[in-house]
């Protein structure tokens, strides 16, 4: 597998890329219908609702009439998405395209609207007296577990308590994020750096995606996993659910998920229970949502100094990516954003925008109230330093000299000019530089003249 | 205004405050029965909640004498689970609605005969706005709020001042008021409310298909509204009610100081107390009896 390009890609893209039969099977599950509806762009959601109780195909033309002129691009995106997810079935008849909702999806969604959201499974009855973790404890648990996993991911040695993932599994996660040269400590790749700066939800999706594609290789059905994950996101945070309600595959998976901090396992006297954390219930929320936003910790001052109120090793590692860490106190990391540290980051393939969004997203609550949360002179300078590196533009080109005569030279330079490929010429010494794209053309022309 | 853009969630997260008209005088005469109406509305509420995990729905019942919150998705859904087959949302909503209707009925026995059978729209609008203000002030992030009035009863002219004040405060805090009028005559109050606040007003032609109207028009989140064709106001009824007798009037007298409206000439403004001059010679005013008088 070639290096994975990390974009904050939605899980739904993965769903959309499933084969048609599997998608149709997924739609038999009511929760998946709901989760998929939620993941769509606003206009697409709107169209689904509008067409939910229309049983005859709707022509593409009348659909277009719903939108104003300046919304046509959004309209196209919405329709494309719907077709991609096979929610809209395209019927071509007599040069007229019309759309119809996927019948399974339609019936399930109708059922959902009429009977309301039913929970996937019953939570633990209240008469069982087991102390459940409070929501703060649960959040802390999820956070700790996730951080531990990340730390192990980027530098296996540093984690205090290793997770139960086998090293082969870990290697799969690391694929694309780390690169290891012989007998050297593994280094983060460009996408590895980008991964660290993404928000938790995006990171989670990335890991889950790797996890799912890996399970596929091991013979577990991808659609089943996706269905279970989506179902999990509809459970109530902090309620305990009985493990007996799960299938064997799901039970195996939930152990892995607890390592990621998605669920907390609790052993009762007779049964064992799993308690979904916020990480799990946020799974089906689209990535742009800030609902999962954590409490920030970074304060950046106008003099480029940075104070991070955090005791986490992971945070320190992340900050080290683009700043010079000066002191590390028990609950405070003091650093400075310098030109050198930033150049280091740029070299590693981190973009200025990524650093800025990271600083903004993780701004300490005190400064987050202010606008802008990161001083403007700092953000501007970070961008300027990045553009400094981009002052030189590379164009592949060929250099020509030793022309037999001035006529040949002039004919050649004219030809290059006509094709907009002349980059530089020195008429006195009869030399020129021409873009590589038209090299073949030039060669033919020159050969023809030589004869 | 009250809401800084940075405090908003992503584009289409919405808080919909639905004002449901429960006026028995209207529903007893309507072609659509109240229970049918409720099933349309419940499905609509479900749809809104389905659209986005962060969407929030609040239902306020507008009764004949009173109004009250009957459902709030942010608190009611987390309550303990009902064992029956009915989903939590419906059962808790219906239960509260029943309690509300009984209370409302008890109050109505004390009301004298002869007044227009309107429901207490001004009260429920104010409650909705209070709720939205609370959302604005609490927490760092909040959804885009909007109000949807599902109204059937005729306008009560005596509520004119209160409703207009509610409309203007909604306009100030940039909360659109959508209105769906199910009664026979169109409601001037609701038309004005939607027109002033930038909401959508619609009077469905066929009440049987209410759900489709709700989905097509009123389920549209504020973000998508800028791309979609929605009903445009045609001929908004801008008539006002006078402050003295609460009659709806075409022409009247306006206090030049506080803009209060009167159907007859008064010596003194009842709202701000400014003393008006003599109405110009009685002979002159007989020719055009009712006119706006900018006299001090």
TrEMBL record, chain A:
GO biological process: nucleotide-excision repair
Transcription factor Tfb2 C-terminal domain ranges (all copies): 380-444
Subcellular location, record wording: Nucleus
UniProt family annotation: Belongs to the TFB2 family.
Functional note: Component of the general transcription and DNA repair factor IIH (TFIIH) core complex which is involved in general and transcription-coupled nucleotide excision repair (NER) of damaged DNA.
PANTHER family found in the cross-reference section: GENERAL TRANSCRIPTION FACTOR IIH SUBUNIT 4, TFIIH, POLYPEPTIDE 4
Protein name: RNA polymerase II transcription factor B subunit 2
TrEMBL record, chain B:
Major localization class: nucleus
Keyword set, alphabetical order: DNA damage, DNA repair, Metal-binding, Nucleus, Transcription, Transcription regulation, Zinc, Zinc-finger
Species of provenance: Theobroma cacao (Cacao)
GO terms of biological process kind: nucleotide-excision repair; regulation of DNA-templated transcription
Coiled coil: none
GO cellular component terms listed in the entry, alphabetical order: transcription factor TFIIH core complex; transcription factor TFIIH holo complex
One annotated GO molecular function: zinc ion binding
UniProt subcellular location: Nucleus
Assembly information from the UniProt record: Component of the 7-subunit TFIIH core complex composed of XPB, XPD, TFB1/GTF2H1, GTF2H2/P44, TFB4/GTF2H3, TFB2/GTF2H4 and TFB5/GTF2H5, which is active in NER. The core complex associates with the 3-subunit CDK-activating kinase (CAK) module composed of CYCH1/cyclin H1, CDKD and MAT1/At4g30820 to form the 10-subunit holoenzyme (holo-TFIIH) active in transcription.
Name of the protein described by the UniProt record: General transcription and DNA repair factor IIH subunit TFB4
Family statement drawn from the similarity comment of this UniProt entry: Belongs to the TFB4 family.
Record-linked Gene3D superfamilies: von Willebrand factor, type A domain
Domain of life: Eukaryota
A Pfam family per the record: Tfb4
Record function comment: Component of the general transcription and DNA repair factor IIH (TFIIH) core complex, which is involved in general and transcription-coupled nucleotide excision repair (NER) of damaged DNA and, when complexed to CAK, in RNA transcription by RNA polymerase II. In NER, TFIIH acts by opening DNA around the lesion to allow the excision of the damaged oligonucleotide and its replacement by a new DNA fragment. In transcription, TFIIH has an essential role in transcription initiation.
Keyword DNA damage among record annotations: yes
């Amino acid at each position: 597998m070639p290096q994975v390009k990390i974009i904050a890609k939605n899980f739904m893209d993965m769903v959309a890329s499933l084969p048609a039969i599997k998608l149709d099977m997924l739609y038999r599950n009511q929760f998946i219908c709901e989760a998929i509806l939620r993941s769509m762009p606003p206009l697409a959601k709107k169209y689904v609702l509008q067409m939910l109780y229309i049983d005859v195909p709707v022509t593409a033309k009348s659909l277009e009439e719903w939108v104003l002129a300046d919304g046509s691009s959004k309209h196209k995106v919405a329709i494309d998405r719907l077709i991609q997810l096979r929610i809209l079935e395209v019927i071509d008849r007599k040069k007229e395209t019309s759309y119809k909702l996927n019948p399974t999806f339609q019936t399930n969604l109708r059922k959902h609207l009429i009977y309301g959201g039913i929970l996937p499974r019953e939570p633990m009855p209240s008469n069982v007296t087991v102390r459940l973790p409070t929501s703060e404890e649960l959040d802390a648990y999820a956070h700790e577990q996730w951080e531990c996993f990340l730390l192990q991911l980027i530098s296996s040695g540093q984690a205090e308590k290793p997770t139960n993932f086998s090293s082969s599994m870990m290697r799969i996660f690391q694929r694309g994020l780390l690169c290891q040269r012989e007998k050297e400590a593994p280094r983060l790749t460009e996408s590895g750096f980008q991964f660290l700066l993404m928000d938790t939800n995006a990171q989670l999706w990335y890991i889950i995606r790797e996890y799912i594609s890996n399970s596929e290789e091991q013979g577990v059905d991808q659609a089943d996993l996706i269905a279970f994950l989506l179902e999990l996101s509809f459970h109530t945070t902090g309620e305990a659910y009985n493990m007996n309600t799960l299938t064997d595959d799901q039970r195996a998976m939930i152990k892995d998920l607890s390592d990621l901090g998605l669920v907390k396992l609790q052993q009762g006297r007779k049964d064992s229970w799993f308690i979904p954390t916020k990480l799990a219930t946020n799974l089906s929320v689209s990535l742009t949502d800030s609902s999962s936003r954590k409490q920030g910790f970074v304060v950046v001052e106008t003099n480029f100094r940075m104070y991070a109120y955090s005791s986490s090793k992971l945070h320190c590692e992340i900050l080290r990516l683009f700043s010079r860490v000066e002191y590390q106190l028990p609950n405070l990391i003091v650093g400075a954003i310098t030109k050198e540290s930033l150049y280091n980051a740029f070299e590693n393939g981190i973009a200025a925008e990524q650093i800025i969004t990271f600083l903004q997203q993780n701004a300490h609550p005190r400064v987050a109230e202010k606008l802008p949360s990161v001083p403007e002179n700092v953000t501007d300078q970070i961008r300027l330093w990045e553009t400094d590196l981009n002052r030189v533009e590379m164009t592949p080109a060929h250099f020509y000299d030793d022309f037999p005569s001035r006529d040949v030279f002039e004919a050649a330079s004219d030809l290059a000019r006509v094709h907009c490929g002349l980059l530089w010429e020195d008429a006195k010494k009869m030399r020129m530089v021409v873009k590589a794209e038209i090299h073949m053309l030039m060669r033919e022309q020159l050969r023809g003249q030589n004869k | 205004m009250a809401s800084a853009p940075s405090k908003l969630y992503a584009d289409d997260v919405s808080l919909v405050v639905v004002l449901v008209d429960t006026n028995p005088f209207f529903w007893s005469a309507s072609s659509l029965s109240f229970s049918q109406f409720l099933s349309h509305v419940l499905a609509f509420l479900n749809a809104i909640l389905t659209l986005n995990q962060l969407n929030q729905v609040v239902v306020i019942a507008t009764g004949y004498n009173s109004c009250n919150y009957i459902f709030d998705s942010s608190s009611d859904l987390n309550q303990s689970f009902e064992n029956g087959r009915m989903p939590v949302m419906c059962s808790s909503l219906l239960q509260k609605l029943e309690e509300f209707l009984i209370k409302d009925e008890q109050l109505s026995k004390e009301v004298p005969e002869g007044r227009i059978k309107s429901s207490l729209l001004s009260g429920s609008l104010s409650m909705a706005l209070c709720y939205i203000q609370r959302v604005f002030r609490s927490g760092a992030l909040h959804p885009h709020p909007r109000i949807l009035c599902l109204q059937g009863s005729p306008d009560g002219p005596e509520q004119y001042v209160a409703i207009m004040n509610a409309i203007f405060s909604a306009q100030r805090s940039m909360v659109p008021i959508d209105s769906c009028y199910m009664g026979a005559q169109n409601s001037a109050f609701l038309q004005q409310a939607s027109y002033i606040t930038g909401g959508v007003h619609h009077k469905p032609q066929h009440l049987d298909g209410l759900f489709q109207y709700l989905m097509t028009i009123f389920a549209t989140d504020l973000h998508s509204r800028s791309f979609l064709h929605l009903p445009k106001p045609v001929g908004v009824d801008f008539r006002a009610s006078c402050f003295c007798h609460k009659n709806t009037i075409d022409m009247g007298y306006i206090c030049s100081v506080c803009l209060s409206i009167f159907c007859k000439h008064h010596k003194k403004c009842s709202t701000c107390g400014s003393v008006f001059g003599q109405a110009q010679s009685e002979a002159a005013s007989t020719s055009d009896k009712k006119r706006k008088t900018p006299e001090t």
